[in-house]
Amino acid sequence: MSSKRKSFSHLDAAGGARMVDVGAKPDSRRTAIAEGRLTCAPATIRLLRAQALPKGDVLTVAQIAGIQAAKSTSALIPLCHPLALTSVDVTFKVQRDSIGVRATVRTTGQTGVEMEALTAVAVAALALYDMCKAVDKGMTIGGVRVVKKTKAST
Asked: Is the pLDDT at 119 greater than 60, yes or no?
């Protein structure tokens, strides 16, 4: 093994965790888009469309949960910077046996918003699960990933 040690941005010289110092980086307009999916029974989707699920307006609750989650990312993920988000948009694509979740998050700052977009998708999907679990015990959450990120000078 080489004596030259690979450097990781979130580790200090002794190998301990640290938050990366982004203070010298210029502000940039940053956007991240993440997606994921809740797979469920077609009967669950029929109940959702009819607004007949026991817990009420599933999509609105999940949308608010995703927005709140994006705003709380630094409290959930230890080495994330707290960011002043300028926009969080959580949308859904209801299909025959699934609900696609998409989050678009924006900020102007020194670091990206991928973690905020991923957190929004994951928590929105968890809220969907919670709202539907009374009628569907076989649901799964998957495919949570960043699909796009951009950075533009301000």
From this structure: yes
